[in-house]
Amino acid sequence: DFGRSSELAFVVEPSDDIAVQEQPLILYCQVEGIQPITITWRKNGVMIVDSENAFMLANGSLYVSRFQRVRGDGSSDEGEYDCMAQNHYGLVVSRKAKIQAATMSDFHIHPQSAVVEEGGVARFQCQIHGLPEPVILWQKNRMPVNTDNERYTLLPKGVLQITGLRAEDSGIFHCVATNIANVKFSREARLTVSGSHSTVYKDPMILVGPENLTLTVHQTAVLECIATGNPRPIVSWSRLDGRPIGVEGIQVLGTGNLMISDLTVQHSGIYVCAANKPGTRVRRTAQGRLVVQAPAEFVQHPQSISRPAGTTAIFTCVAQGEPPPQITWLRNGQILETSDHIKLKNNNSTLSIYGINQADEAIYQCIAENSAGSTQASARLTVLWADGLPSPPQSVKAETVSATTIQVSWKEPLQNTKEIIGYVLHIRKAADPEEMEYQEAVSKSTFQQLVTDLEPSTSYSFYIKAYTSRGASKPSEVTVVSTLGEVPAMPSLFIKVINSTTVQATWEPSIKLGQHEGFKLYYRKVHLSQYTGPVLLPSNVTAYNITHLDASVVYEVKLLAFNQHGDGNSTVRFVSLRETVERTVLNPPCDCGKDEQNNKTSTTGIIIGIHIGVTCIIFCVLFLMFGYRGRLLMCKNVQEQLSTPQIPRSQRSATGLVLNGATRRDKDDRDMNGKQLDMNELERLFPASLAQEQQDKGITSAHSPPAAHDDTQITTLPLDEFSIIEEQPDPLPKSPRSSSPAAPAPDHGPTYEG
After folding, report:
1. Fewest CB within 10 A of the end CB: N or C in the chain?
2. Which part of the chain is the Ig-like domain (predicted)?
3. Which segments of the chain have a pLDDT < 50?
4. Is-contact 35 87, C-beta < 8 A?
């Protein structure tokens, strides 16, 4: 069973009760476990001795023959009672039961007489205190009020509401309070209903709003709200935090009282009562706070455990409630005192016992308590101890390997080594408490362990235990050693080109750099082996400009952080300034003043450009129209031109060129000269591929004899405008070789002049 020790545990515990004066009282206590079990009772922490008035029954319960709130000697039977049970395994204490005497005070508030007009609202109230809470009933004219009448509402706290008053409601009212201690009657109050129902408009008004209430879960809360007005206001409820009130367990009493049954902690909050005038936004509000408490209850019980001597025992006890409960630990019924050996953590939810021995064997109890109630759970610790356990491991040594690693070595125990199943290495920072210790298991054939993931420049303590199936040896001697210091981590390096001879190295300071004293900066041309540097920079510097660089080569920049433990790993970057130089040539600095002046006239320039463009388009269209018309007229006379006596080709070509406004020879001279320049440049860039292309296309360079050029001018004409007469060419005379590219070449066909 959860929360119970099988050796000794409570089956029934005493509960809170209200006792009646001069009446007997029984407090129940039932225990199970391994006999013999001894049961005793305490009141307010003091042992109860059997007497004529109070004694223990055979089943362990406590019997009080005549309960007295106050005895003749000034003592009282009221108080907190608990039951203790003990056997040879330990001692447990029950929860505390609060015993109070049944009482009833006089009325604090009596009903008051009232005169109310017909159709209005009447309210009477009685208030009285008592244990248990008195039940209040109402009488009219010495007869019980008819609760079946929907206009009559009785609230648990002694309030009577009458709505929609009529003449027959007039009468004498009083209340009757009853509990196990007494019955009392209040003073009488007269209700007078006057006049007839008024039709005069009245703003809504809340006569009585909700009170602040503090209750316990599963109880019932009644929030009162009674309002008047003409017309009769509509009463509504809401929560101030905007959460829905819900429907389960919610009921409206009378004309606007809110009743919440079976309370839970989620019902806690501020409730707002609103009286609304029908059909308008006119409203009046009142509010009250509801606090719902929950007794302490366990979410996780402590569990009985058995552990070998020298190990650590941990008990966990988690409780909830409203308000949050306080947790207390008992050891064999006594308050547990903490020490270096016993620690409480997580708001006392976790009990840790380090290096347990026979003296720690006991029953441990967790007591959870708040203003709404208390509860307890117990668990037993058994310490396993056997003869013939190994002696402590010998010659424990620890050697530092690096900033984060230590190697621990030891030798086999001197005695009882045959049953060893392994070793456990206990590791802790020397400055930490014992509960921060952690362990690493090692096989029985291994006598050294590399402990990693340690912190640099930190002292650690180590000890070893040898384990068998029956328990652990005593711990070895403790050895303390420190890790080495750590060099800084690699910094983040960025390179920015400032100009053609300067770059800027920047880096980010980082907590991962560790303790560093500064930075070292190196740089070199990549084709050289020697670095320039180091440039020593303090730890607060994060940028450095490298100047007087050569723009034609690539540079390597290296940065590292250093401290008293040495240099860290470096970060390397490569940078070239060539692109910056090229960009400067291709994109010279702008004349910003000139650009600004040009921007001022840009709009005017755009408008003028548009006009010029439109004008050019018009002229081009007119030129094409007139040029095409003139060509058609000339084509009509082609046939006549073909039939005229032929003149020598050279003369005809020359004449045709002159008719066109210039000699073709001059034009060819200019074209060929330009073409030769272009060909020379192409030959220099692409000598192999261009030669073949020239052969394919018939292009002759200036260094070879010119081929005969066909100066025929061809004009395309519609077929229905002219006809072609084949002409036999004359024998061509051989012309002497000439280096002039402008020499006329003989024609091989007719020339058609447009």
Report:
1. N
2. 8-100, 105-192, 204-287, 295-382
3. 1-2, 592-596, 635-679, 681-754
4. yes
In contact, 120 and 194? CB cutoff 8 Å: no
pLDDT at 717: 40
Question: What's the CA gap between 128 and 105, in Å, rounded?
Answer: 6
3-state secondary structure 539-604: CCCCEEEECCCCCCCEEEEEEEEEECCEECCCEEEEEECHHHHHHHHHCCCCCHHHHHHHHHCHHH
- Name the DSSP class of 72: T
pLDDT at site 37: 93
Residue recorded with tokens 């008035």? 53
**Do 152 and 146 touch, CB atoms closer than 8 A?**
yes
Structure tokens that stand for 507 in this block:
């880096």
d(CA 161, CA 114): 13
* Dist. CA 378–CA 9, nearest whole Å: 7
Tokens representing 592 are: 């910003």
Q: Which two tokens stand for residue 612?
A: 């010029």
User: What is the value of pTM for the model shown?
Assistant: 0.54
Multiple choice CATH, 301-384, 3.20.20.150, 3.30.40.10, 2.60.40.10, 3.10.50.30: 2.60.40.10
The CATH number of domain 494-577, selected from 2.60.40.10, 2.60.40.1190, 1.10.1740.10, 3.40.50.620: 2.60.40.10
- The tokens for 306 are 């058995």
Residues 441 and 421: their CA atoms lie apart, in Å, by 10
Residue 148 has a pLDDT of 85
Size (the chain), residues: 754
**Considering only CA atoms, which of 28, 6, 3 is closest in space to residue 90?**
6
Which CATH number is 397-482 given?
A: 2.60.40.10
CA distances from 120 to 116, 174, 196, 198 (A): 6, 20, 10, 9
Domain boundaries, the chain: 9-101, 104-260+273-282, 301-384, 397-482, 494-577
pLDDT digits (tens, 9 = 90+) for 221-265: 999 999 988 888 999 999 999 999 988 889 998 889 999 999 999
Cis bond before residue 744 (omega within 30° of 0): no
Question: What letter does residue 657 receive in the DSSP assignment?
Answer: H
What pLDDT shows up at residue 6? 65
Query: What CATH superfamily is the domain 104-260+273-282?
Result: Immunoglobulins (2.60.40.10)
CA distance 159 to 637: 131
Q: How far apart are CA 455 and CA 360, in angstroms?
A: 34
> How many other CB atoms are there within 10 angstroms of residue 21's CB atom?
16
Fold match, 9-101 / 494-577: yes
Return d(Cα 92, Cα 29) in angstroms, integer. 12
Q: What pLDDT does 513 receive?
A: 60
pLDDT at 416: 85
pLDDT the model gives residue 510: 63
Query: Distance between CA atoms of 131 and 22, rounded to whole angstroms?
Result: 15
Q: In angstroms, rounded to a whole number, what is the distance separating the alpha carbons of residues 215 and 268?
A: 10
- C-alpha distances in angstroms, 373 versus 81, 322, 326, 673? 14, 10, 11, 116
Q: What is the pLDDT of residues 429-444, one digit of tens each?
A: 988 887 788 889 999 9
Q: For residue 278, what pLDDT is reported?
A: 87
What sign has the CA pseudo-torsion 198, 199, 205, 206? positive
> Are 38 and 16 a contacting pair, CB within 8 Å?
no
Helix axes 664-685, 649-659, angle to 10 degrees: 90
Rg (alpha carbons) of the chain, rounded to whole number = 56
Tell me the angle at which helices 592-600 and 602-635 cross, rounded to the nearest 10 degrees. Answer: 70
What's the pLDDT at 395? Answer: 93
What are 107-148's pLDDT values in tens digits?
A: 999 999 999 988 889 999 999 999 999 999 999 999 999 888
Residue corresponding to tokens 């006999």: 35
Domain boundaries 9-101, CATH class: mainly beta
